[in-house]
Amino acid sequence: MNLDKVVCYCMNVTSGMIKNAIDNGANTLEEVQSATGAGTVCGSCLDNVQRLVEQFVAERADK
Ligand code: FES
Q: Which ligand 1 atom is the nearest neighbour of the CA of 49?
C-alpha cells in the first residue's frame, strides 16, 4: 500500500497518517477523525477512511 496516498483531500490526510493514528492507539473511525481531522469536512472520503481504519486495526491486531 502507498502510505503517501492522500485519502482525505479536505484535510490532506494520507493513509500513513491514518496508520500512525491507529498505531498510536486510535481504534475507531471517530478516534481517527479526532486525531487526524480526516473526514471532518465534506465527508466524501468517509467510506475510504473507514475501510483503512478497519484494515490498519486488523493489521495491528495481528502483530
Ligand atoms: S475529502 Fe475528507 S472530509 Fe472532504
A: 2
